[in-house]
Amino acid sequence: RGNNAEREVPFAQPGSLTRVYAVASGKGGVGKSSVTVNLAAAMAADGLKVGVVDADIYGHSVPRMLGADGKPTQVENMIMPPSSHGVKVISIGMFTPGNAPVVWRGPMLHRALQQFLADVYWGDLDVLLLDLPPGTGDIAISVAQLVPNAEILVVTTPQQAAAEVAERAGSIAVQTHQKIVGVVENMSGMPCPHCDEMVDVFGSGGGARVAEGLTRTVGAEVPVLGSIPIDVRLREGGDEGKPVVLSDPDSPAGSALRAIAQKL
Ligand code: ADP
């Protein structure tokens, strides 16, 4: 469709009952996508109607982690998203041939996101999760414009350097007037396989530091929603397309993620 025929984003309309969470991080590789898919799967398992937009356009990885290997179909002029484990999901990777890279500038990203939000038939969702790219780039700004009511969920590791960057990513909420729902600390130590003692591979305290910093910056309480340990089962779950909250819900990472999902 032409640019003049843009549909409105249903989630941004007054009276929309869908809670929208934009999952953000400062750096890549901190587990933002893993957290997104596990929260989505946990909420769907709890009976909620859940959708995920893979808005990490260049680094899209959500469909694989959710095991969503179906293709979107077109019905009239709407896109029907595939679903997996009860979660509807859309990703740019579903529209690019093979593993071709996405080589776009900012305005194209905005347009893609607009279509993911308005031209995809989501139905009545209880929750929509957006997996943002790391950092404070075009997409974060587009999300704020297209869905101003989206609340930001910040993922960080315990490491000082990662926490500083994560705090910057979260603090765009001040400019965009968005609410920050909380901070999730991921990779918070690893139980030693021999003696079970916790090894703080990435240090400690990053989640609390980000939450305190953001509380000061935005002038409203930003809580730490939970900490997730390093857990091989979480990585395996992502690789196999079955999030750990489903494949091993009582594992340390699985139970931590389920507890966070309960708070949203
Ligand atoms: P991001 O979205 O921030 O780039 P990913 O979710 O893709 O990060 O995670 C990066 C890698 O780290 C993935 O291979 C993922 O399986 C792994 N990973 C993330 N969190 C954990 C964890 N708590 N324990 C073990 N592996 C993890």
Automatic annotation (TrEMBL):
Q: What keywords tag this UniProt record?
A: ATP-binding, Hydrolase, Iron, Iron-sulfur, Metal-binding, Nucleotide-binding
Where on the tree of life does the source sit, at the highest rank?
Bacteria
Protein residues bound to ATP: 26-33
Annotated GO molecular function terms are:
ATP binding
Q: Does the keyword Magnesium apply?
A: no
Q: State what this protein does.
A: Binds and transfers iron-sulfur (Fe-S) clusters to target apoproteins. Can hydrolyze ATP.
State the oligomer form and interacting partners: Homodimer.
Name the family the entry cites: In the N-terminal section; belongs to the MIP18 family. In the C-terminal section; belongs to the Mrp/NBP35 ATP-binding proteins family.
Entry protein name: Iron-sulfur cluster carrier protein
